[in-house]
Design a protein that fits this description.
CATH architecture of the largest domain: 2-Layer Sandwich
CATH class of the largest domain: Alpha Beta
Number of strands: 28
Shape: elongated
Structural class: alpha+beta
Strand content: 25-35%
Distance between the termini: 118 Å
CATH topology of the largest domain: Beta-Lactamase
Helix content: 40-55%
Number of helices: 23
Number of domains: 5
CATH superfamily of the largest domain: PAS domain
Strand order of the largest sheet: 18-17-16-21-20-19
Length: 763
C-alpha cells in the first residue's frame, strides 16, 4: 500500500513539474528602470504576464504606491545600496501575481547617479524543485538507518562483455545456451564482482565480516541458484537495467532463507553495468512488510551514495554521539573517529561562533539550514551545508541536534570559479581594448598597468615581462609590477644570457613553465632553483610570448610570501593575457616601423622632408623658449647629373649615400640631417651660433671634398655647395630660416660651387 501511494505521489509530482515546465517555458526576464525614489521609469520588452500590475498602473508610480510597505522598504533599500556603492546588487524575492506566488532572482545595476536597471529572472520552478528535493531527502534519510534491507554493490561489466561476445557468435536463446553449456554458465557467473555489502547483508546470512561474506559468496547461493543465474543473465542480455525475482539463499549457519531480490544499475552506469545495486529482503516470515522497507531503503541508499551526505547526532556540548560512514568521509577521518569528538575541533574561531549561534536556535526548537566551513585533519578546508533539527527527550527537553551534512565544496568552488572567470574575461576585454586604442608612446605604461591588474586579480606578489634579444641571446626585464613590500627585480635582470637557465628555456619555448614549489625542482634545474631562491620565489608560473612561432619573451607571475598551486583555469587565462601582450608588442613594433618609414628617406636612411620638418619645428620651438641660437646648413651635390649621365643613376644613388656618410661622421647626435629632395640636403644645428655653424660647414665641405669612391674602376670626387643661415635672436619660423639658407645656397652656386655662403643677419 505504501509503495502504491508513493508511486501515485511521484506521478502527481512528475505531472505537476511537467505542467509548471510548460507554463514557464515561454516566460522571459523582467527589465525595469527605477529612479532613486523607487519610481517606475520604464518597463522594457518583457512578458507583461509576470508584472505585479499592468504596465499602465506601474509607470510613474513609486514602489510604496504599488506594494506593501515592508516589501517596498526592502526593494527601495536595494536600489539605494546599488546607487550608493555603484555596484551590482543581487537578491531573491517573491510576489503574488494573479493568485499565485512567483519567485524572482533580481540583479540591480546603477545606470546613472539616480537610476538603476532592475533585471528579474523568474525562478519559481527552481524554488519548487528545491523544496520538493528537501522534503524527499528528509523522508528517505530518516528511514535509512533502521532499514533491515541488505544491499550488495556489484560489478557486472565483465558479465555484460561476456554476454555481448556470446550474442556476437550468433546465440539468440541465452536461456537454452546456458542450460546446455553449464561450464559457460559458471564462467559467466565468475565475472560477477561483489564490491561491497552493507551490515544488513552480513546479518541476513549470519556472516561476521564483509571479507568473510565476499570471500565465500558461493556458500550463500542455494540449490536453485543455477536457474536464478540463468534468468538473471537472460534479463541482462535483453538490455534490462532493473528487474526483480525471488530465490533461495543459505546462511553461514546452513539455514535456507527465501529472499526477494532486486537488481538495478546505478544511475549513470546503464551502459557499462560496472555498478549494480542488488538488494535482498528476507521474505521467509514477512514478505510484504520487508518489501516496503526495501523500496525505501533502496531509494535512500542510492540517494546517499550519489550525494555523499553524512548523518550525525551532536549533543548539547557539541560532541558527536553518532555518525554514519559518509559523515566520516566528509570530515576526513577514519570510520568511528567522529563519535566522542567535539565538532569545534574542525572549526576556526568564526565557524565555532556560528555553531554556537545555531545550537541556541535548536534549543529554542527551531529547525535550520546553514553553511559551515570545516578544516579536515590534513588541513584541507571543505564547505558543508547542514540541515539541522533539535532532538528532545520524553519530557521535551533539548538533548542534541540531528544533522545531515552535504559537502558543497565542489559546487561552491565552481560558482567561485565562474565568477572569477567572468571577472578575468572582463578584465582581458578591458586590457585588450586599451591596447587597441592606446597611442604607441603609451605602451610601456599600459603594459605596467595590465601587469598590475592581472597580478592583483591572481593574488600574486610579482608580475613581469621579459623580452628576448634573439641576436645576442639575452633576456631583459622590461616591465614589472610588485605588491607593496616585495622587492623589485627589474634592475637586476638586464641583458642576462639565456644560457644561464638551460632547463627553463628548453621548456618555455613550447609551453608554459608551471612551478608550484621551487623547493621541489629536479636536480637538472639546479641553476634555475638557485636563481629563483635568490629572488625569494616560492612558486611561479611563466608563459611564452610568441610571434610567428618565434619566442620573443615571456610573462611571469611569482609568489614570494607563500606557495601557490596553480589551477588549470587560471593558467589558461594567464596564457590568454600573455597572448594579448604579445600582440600588443608586435603591433607597437609594426607601428614604429611604419612611423619610421613615413619620416625616413628610403635611399639614404636619413629624415625625409616631412620627418625633418617635424623635428626642426620642435627644436626651433625649444630654442625660442630658452632664447638659444640655431644654425641651418642647406647644401646640394655638385655635378650629380654628370655622374648619372656617365655611370648611370645607380651610381648617382651611391654618390648620394656617400655624401650622407660624410655628413653623419661630421655632425653631432643632437643635429638633424634630412634629404630635402633630389640631391639637396639640410642640417639643423641646435645650440649653434654663427661661428659654430660656420665651423660645421667648413668641416663638411672639406670632408666631402677629400672623399672619393670608385665606380666601375674609376675614382670619383665629390663636392657640395653649402648655404648657411643662423637664427640667434630674431626667432625665425622654419620657413624663414630655410629661405635664408636657400638664398645663401644660391649665392654659393653662383660663386662657382664647392664653397660656403651665408646670410649673416636674419631677413
Amino acid at each position: 500500500a505504501q509503495a502504491i501511494e508513493r508511486k501515485r505521489t511521484e506521478e502527481a509530482l512528475s505531472k505537476s513539474e511537467a505542467d509548471m515546465r510548460a507554463l514557464f517555458a515561454a516566460m522571459t526576464d523582467i527589465i525595469l528602470v527605477f529612479d532613486r525614489y523607487g519610481r517606475y521609469i520604464s518597463i522594457l520588452g518583457t512578458n507583461t504576464d509576470l508584472l505585479y500590475k499592468p504596465h499602465d498602473e506601474l509607470i510613474g508610480k513609486t514602489l510604496h504606491e504599488v506594494l506593501e510597505k515592508n516589501e517596498a522598504d526592502v526593494f527601495l533599500a536595494h536600489i539605494t545600496s546599488a546607487l550608493t556603492s555603484r555596484k551590482n546588487v543581487t537578491f531573491e524575492y517573491s510576489l503574488p501575481i494573479e493568485g499565485k506566488t512567483f519567485w524572482f532572482a533580481a540583479s540591480l545595476s546603477p545606470v546613472t547617479e539616480d537610476t538603476v536597471i532592475w533585471v528579474a529572472h523568474e525562478i519559481t520552478r527552481r524554488k519548487q524543485a528545491e523544496e520538493a528535493q528537501r522534503v524527499s531527502e528528509a523522508r528517505f534519510r530518516e528511514l535509512f538507518e533502521d532499514s533491515p534491507v541488505s544491499l550488495w554493490e556489484e560489478d557486472f561489466s565483465g558479465v555484460k562483455r561476456f554476454l555481448d561476445d556470446v550474442k556476437k557468435r550468433g546465440v539468440t536463446d541465452i536461456k537454452a545456451y546456458f542450460e546446455s553449456h553449464p561450464k559457460e554458465l559458471a564462467k559467466c557467473a565468475s565475472k560477477i564482482k561483489v564490491l561491497d555489502v552493507n551490515k544488513a547483508a552480513l546479518k541476513l546470512v549470519h556472516a561476521k565480516t564483509k571479507n568473510e561474506l565476499i570471500g565465500k559468496i558461493s556458500q550463500v547461493l542455494g540449490g536453485n541458484s543455477q536457474n536464478d543465474l540463468i534468468q538473471e543473465f537472460v534479463n541482462i542480455a535483453a538490455g534490462m537495467t532493473e528487474f526483480e525475482w525471488e530465490g533461495i539463499n543459505n546462511t553461514f549457519d546452513g539455514e535456507s532463507i527465501i529472499v526477494s531480490m532486486h537488481w538495478s544499475t546505478a544511475l549513470g552506469y546503464e551502459n557499462s553495468l560496472s555498478k549494480v545495486i542488488v538488494s535482498l529482503i528476507d521474505i521467509t516470515k514477512s514478505k510484504q512488510a520487508e518489501a516496503a522497507l526495501f523500496a525505501s531503503e533502496e531509494q535512500y541508499r542510492n540517494l546517499v551514495d550519489n550525494l555523499g551526505e553524512g548523518i550525525a547526532v551532536v549533543d548539547v556540548n557539541e560532541c558527536f554521539t553518532f555518525s554514519n560512514p559518509s559523515a566520516h568521509e566528509i570530515f576526513g577521518v577514519s570510520p568511528g573517529a567522529l563519535v566522542g569528538c567535539n565538532i569545534n575541533k574542525f572549526l576556526d574561531n568564526h565557524n565555532q561562533r556560528l555553531v554556537k549561534q545555531q545550537t541556541q536556535k535548536r534549543k529554542k526548537g527551531e529547525h535550520g539550514v546553514y553553511e559551515l566551513e570545516i578544516i579536515r585533519p590534513d588541513g584541507e578546508r571543505r564547505i558543508i551545508q547542514i540541515s539541522a533539527r533539535p532532538q528532545v527527550d520524553n519530557e521535551r527537553g533539548f538533548i542534541g541536534t540531528f544533522a545531515i551534512f552535504h559537502d558543497i565544496t565542489v559546487q561552491k568552488k565552481s560558482v567561485e570559479q565562474l565568477h572569477f572567470r567572468s571577472r578575468f574575461d572582463e578584465l582581458l576585454t578591458q586590457i585588450s581594448t586599451r591596447f587597441i586604442n592606446f597611442a604607441n608612446i603609451e605602451i610601456d605604461a599600459e603594459i605596467n598597468t595590465a601587469l598590475r591588474l592581472i597580478g592583483q586579480l591572481e593574488n600574486v606578489d610579482r608580475s613581469y615581462l621579459l623580452q628576448i634579444d634573439t641576436n645576442n641571446k639575452t633576456m631583459t626585464n622590461t616591465h614589472e609590477w610588485c605588491e607593496i613590500g616585495i622587492d623589485p627585480q627589474i634592475n637586476s635582470i638586464q641583458n642576462q644570457p639565456i644560457s644561464a637557465m638551460p632547463w627553463f628555456f628548453d621548456r618555455i619555448v613550447d609551453e608554459p613553465v608551471i612551478i608550484n614549489r621551487v623547493a621541489d625542482l629536479p636536480e637538472e634545474a639546479l641553476l634555475e632553483k638557485k636563481i629563483f631562491e635568490s629572488q625569494d620565489i616560492q612558486s611561479l608560473a611563466v608563459f611564452p610570448m610568441q610571434v610567428n612561432q618565434l619566442l620573443i619573451g615571456f610573462v611571469g607571475f611569482d609568489t614570494v610570501l607563500s606557495e601557490r598551486k596553480w589551477e588549470k583555469d587560471s593558467t589558461t587565462m594567464m596564457q590568454q593575457f600573455t597572448n594579448i601582450l604579445s600582440n600588443a608588442l608586435e603591433r607597437s613594433r609594426l607601428i614604429r616601423i611604419l612611423e619610421d618609414r613615413a619620416i625616413r628617406d628610403e635611399l639614404t636612411g636619413v629624415l625625409n622632408r616631412r620627418g625633418f620638418s617635424e623635428f626642426a619645428k620642435i627644436e626651433l620651438s625649444r630654442a625660442h623658449r630658452y632664447d638659444r641660437p640655431v644654425g641651418m646648413l642647406l647644401f646640394d651635390m655638385d655635378h650629380l647629373k654628370q655622374i648619372n649621365d656617365t655611370f648611370g643613376h645607380s651610381a648617382g644613388d651611391l654618390a648620394l649615400q656617400e655624401i650622407v656618410k660624410c655628413c653623419l661622421s661630421n655632425i653631432r647626435e643632437i643635429d638633424s640631417l634630412g634629404r630635402w629632395g633630389g640631391d639637396e640636403f639640410v642640417v639643423l644645428l641646435p645650440e649653434s651660433d654663427q661661428s659654430s655653424t660656420n665651423c660645421v660647414a667648413e668641416r663638411l665641405l672639406t670632408s666631402i671634398a677629400n672623399h672619393s669612391f670608385v665606380i666601375e674602376g674609376n675614382p670619383v670626387k665629390l663636392s657640395v655647395s653649402i648655404g648657411m643661415a643662423v637664427d640667434d635672436k630674431t626667432k625665425l619660423t622654419l620657413d624663414e630660416l630655410f629661405r635664408n639658407a636657400d638664398s645663401a645656397l644660391y649665392a654659393a652656386k653662383q660663386a662657382g660651387r664647392n664653397c660656403i655662403r651665408c646670410v649673416p643677419k636674419a631677413k
